[in-house]
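Final report, Chapter 2: Outcomes

The project's central promise was a pipeline that accepts a single protein chain and returns its three-dimensional structure in a standardized token representation, suitable for archiving and comparison. That pipeline is now operational. To close this chapter, we reproduce one record exactly as it appears in the project archive, with the input sequence first and the structure output second.
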Amino acid sequence: MTTNMTSKGQVTIPKRMRDAAGLKPGKPVSVDFVDGKVVLSPGKKIGKSEFRKRLEKVRGTLNLGMTTDEFMKLMRGDD
């Protein structure tokens, strides 16, 4: 099956596939990249403290080779 992605990165997953995968409206969905493929599965909702712990774990680990201002300018498409 093939579907199109919107400019916002949204994709429609056919009902029979959502049902088979256990994906429910309004519930979390886990998105992973495994062996060159995007894999969707039911996710589990995490609490604020777990979310904060995960953010703290990765804080300061991204090195883009540019300043935050340079990165924001690039993302916004500023000249």
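Archive annotation: The beta strands are 29-34, 37-42.
This record, like all others produced under the grant, will remain available to the consortium after the project formally closes.
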